[in-house]
Recover the amino acids of this structure.
């Protein structure tokens, strides 16, 4: 949480305060991030504004999960992209696998053919040199 607090330019205490749990998914309210982006524009902090804007794009466009919430998985994908310049493609595939697996787990069913093959493909591409 300290890394995201640094990028968003708020204290870790405030971040812990605004963090919410909705339906078992922990994240930061989109509304709070939008307010922070406006405040950064008013302060002339363009680099931090862009970081918050990209985080919002990750949460709203690339990985929408819970309406009005940017979840911690999205924040982790953003941090991997922001700090390590890891491929966004891998983050999208990891999110797709997680979504398929989580939905199957909740319904008590399994996708017998697709999910294991997708997992093997994903792991082979994540850990290849």
């Amino acid at each position: 949480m300290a890394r995201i607090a640094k990028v968003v330019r708020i204290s870790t205490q405030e971040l812990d305060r605004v963090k919410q749990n909705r339906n078992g998914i922990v994240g930061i309210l989109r509304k709070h991030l939008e307010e922070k982006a406006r405040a950064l524009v008013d302060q002339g902090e363009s680099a931090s504004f862009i970081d918050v804007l990209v985080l919002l794009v990750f949460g709203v466009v690339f990985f929408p999960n819970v309406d009005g919430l940017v979840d911690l998985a999205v924040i982790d994908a953003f941090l991997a992209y922001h700090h390590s310049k890891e491929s966004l493609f891998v983050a999208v595939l990891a999110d797709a696998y997680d979504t398929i697996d989580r939905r199957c787990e909740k319904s008590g069913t399994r996708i017998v053919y697709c999910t294991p093959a997708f997992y093997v493909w994903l792991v082979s591409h994540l850990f290849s040199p």
The two ends are 29 Å apart (CA to CA). The beta strands are 19-22, 25-29, 69-71.
